[in-house]
Specification:
Helix content is about 45%, strand content about 25%. With about 250 residues, it is an alpha/beta fold. Strands 7, 8, 9, 10, 11 and 12 form a 6-stranded mixed sheet that branches. Strands 4-1-5 form a 3-stranded parallel sheet. Helix 2 (about 55-65) crosses helix 8 (about 220-235). The protein is globular and about 55 Å long.
Length: about 250
């Protein structure tokens, strides 16, 4: 009898462990890291809630595909670090798909076309890159704007300052510490159009590129597949355009 009871106990414990394992998998919550302020992709509404194209898109995709998410607003660099150290499962933060990033990340299908523009204070005498000679220009770390600024810095002879946040970058130009900044074109156009940034754009859109949803290379393939599936569906049924129009 003792042996029988012991065997039954082992079977029961095994069943509990299997059940618990199943629950853990079913209750998986994907941690999605994002930027703090990057309108119209990440920003706060009047109540302090995080909104924007990226936020609305990932929430809609999660709902459509039936998975849970925990969105963490960390800042762009911190979001990338969280992904690379295993503290986040994915990043959606207006991240441009670039060859050097594709070496360590797997990207979704492109979800937004972008490019780089130069922003200057109103009435500025900076109307071309040649006007930057001998002056200070600012860009945000680890961005396409910074990469473009670095690519023309020696040609046009300006000093390049790098900051961690978009707000710091804009303040540098507003205060006159820098004569121009390089930022993604849709961000500058949105903030100027909404009256949030009293800047001018005097140069063309440079380096057209695309944003993508990123996971670490070789990891979270199922999450990437769900993102792509819903994105294609939304582009077909009008949901994608509906999200974009919210922030026009």
């Amino acid at each position: 009898m003792k042996k029988f009871l012991t065997s039954m106990l082992v079977v029961a414990m095994a069943a509990v462990l299997v059940a618990c394992g199943g629950n853990d998998a079913g209750d998986k919550v994907y941690i999605i890291a994002t930027d703090t302020t990057y309108p119209p992709f990440e920003m706060q509404d009047a109540s302090g809630n995080l909104i924007g194209i990226d936020i609305d898109l990932i929430k809609a995709i999660a709902e459509d595909q039936g998975f849970k998410i925990d969105i963490q607003s960390l800042g762009f660099d911190a979001a990338c670090t969280a992904l690379e150290t295993g503290q986040a499962d994915a990043v959606i933060a207006g991240m441009t798909i670039k060859p050097e990033r594709e070496e360590k990340y797997d990207f979704s299908d492109p979800y937004y076309e972008t490019g780089v523009s130069m922003g200057v204070a109103p009435g500025s005498n900076i109307s071309s890159y040649a006007d930057l000679a001998g002056k200070t220009v600012v860009a945000k770390t680890n961005t396409t704007g910074l990469a473009f600024a670095e690519s023309i810095k020696d040609q046009y002879g300006f000093t390049l300052e790098v900051v961690e946040e978009s707000t710091f970058m804009f303040e540098k130009v507003k205060s006159g510490e820098a004569v121009a900044c390089f930022e993604d074109t849709p961000v500058l156009k949105y903030m100027i159009g909404k009256g949030e940034l009293n800047f001018e754009i005097n140069t063309p859109n440079e380096n057209p590129a695309y944003y993508g949803f990123a996971v670490m290379k070789g990891e979270n393939a199922e999450l990437l597949e769900m993102f792509n599936t819903a994105l294609a569906k939304f582009k077909d049924n009008g949901k994608y355009d509906e999200i974009l129009k919210t922030y026009e």
